[in-house]
Amino acid sequence: MGTGDAMVGTRSTGRRSAGRAYRQLRGLRGAAAPQATLVVVVGWLLGRGLTITGFALAQLAQGQPAGWAQLAARWDGEWYVMLARDGYPPTLDLPGRPFYGPWGFFPFWPWTIRALSAVLGDHPLAAAAIATAAYGLLVTAAVWVAAYLVGGRRIALASTALFSVFPGTLSLTMPYTEGSFIFWSIVALLALGTARAAPMTAAAHLEVAARPWWLTGLAAVAAFMACGTRSTGLALIVAVAVHALVSWLRGRRLPWGHLVVIVAGALGVVADFTYAAHRTGDPFIWRRAQAQWNQIFDFGHGLLVAFTETVPSHGADYRHWAVMLVMSVVLCAAVILAAVSWRRIPLTWWVFVVVTLALVLLWSSVGPRPRMLLALFPIFIAASMTLLRWRIAGWILIAAIGAVSAIGTVAYAFAVFYLPWHITA
């Protein structure tokens, strides 16, 4: 194994300072940097190619045109583009649409598209395409960086490949929030110096607490953006809080930078509610909108009913629930693989995974859809670490898993865009 593949974060390097890991990242030279860029770009293009293929096949089967306008207008993408173009209404409902309304979507992503549209001369569809492509590329790069910091180039390559062909990558082709949310979440976690395998010594926690101020500022901005984009930003806030607590207990020093990041994340949510109060007079209209969209906290009971009754009996929307059943099986397999290498992944990242999973599984109407599982980037990394323990055999397994996942991604994209099946993204 070459020096470029040295395992950052293993027992032999677990006591290095957080700054050293980032210096290693900045120190990519020669062929390493172009290789990393190639992996990210090819991974991103592969994901787009797979999902666009599924979309084109679905449109062909329905005798409909296959363009960006049609792709962006499907499911939640239609809402985001509409909100970017027209803004939020002063009421919960839109005329003629009493059951579902625009206030079920946090405004940071529509605002991003709207701002870019203004730069382009009022072209929201073009702005949505550019923003979606940019964040898709950025989040792929972020996954590579996160994997590299804790595992080296081999792990980064494998993790990026698995992430890129996972069915949830469809949300990086459609104008959805996943690209923005996952990217800013990873940036916040990395800027806080969490890319350290457990256990960390007291000295290491003191070093993390003494990060440069600009990294704290970057983490704060990232937390603000992530939490203002999706309600699952709660997972990021909890992860940072746990990291702060552990740093304080082991380092005997209050990590003020972490508190700044937590406050910044909370302010992202406050910004959403403040805007809602300004626009409608009701700061809690988001809560009413969630009820309008049937977002009910039921401890996952609805999922169990759907998996055991609706799917076997081919009940209402059984295909939609069947996809989530398959994803649940895939998730269990991925968790088993990841568990073998859990010690090589930072505790903070696992907290992010656990809280995200809770937010997904305890609300049955959300459920383990592929795009919801895409945020579990540490699982992709840990599973890659486990598979590559077998070296050549591991690469063969990764190639096989990737091939099956790629086929599944095309099939899933087809299913989402083939309207008679009514499978939501």
Characterise this structure.
With 425 residues, the chain is mostly helical. The protein has helices at residues 18-26, 32-62, 68-72, 76-86, 108-120, 124-151, 153-165, 178-191, 202-209, 213-229, 233-251, 256-280, 285-292, 301-313, 318-340, 347-361, 370-373, 377-387, 392-417. Helix 6 packs antiparallel against helix 7 and helix 10 (213-229) packs antiparallel against helix 11 (233-251). The protein is globular. It starts with 17 loop residues before the first helix and ends in an 8-residue tail after the last helix.
Summarize the structure.
With 425 residues, the chain is mainly alpha-helical. It is built from 19 helices and no strands.
The backbone outline, from C-alpha atoms, is globular
Report the major sheet.
Answer: none
Provide the helix percentage: 55-70%
Percentage beta strand: under 5%
> What is the N-to-C order of secondary-structure elements (H for helix, E for strand)?
HHHHHHHHHHHHHHHHHHH
- Compute the CA-based radius of gyration: 21 Å
Q: Indicate the low-confidence ranges by residue numbers.
A: 1-18, 197-207
Which whole number gives the mean pLDDT?
A: 87
Structural class: mainly alpha
- The termini sit apart by 41 Å
- How many helices? The count is 19
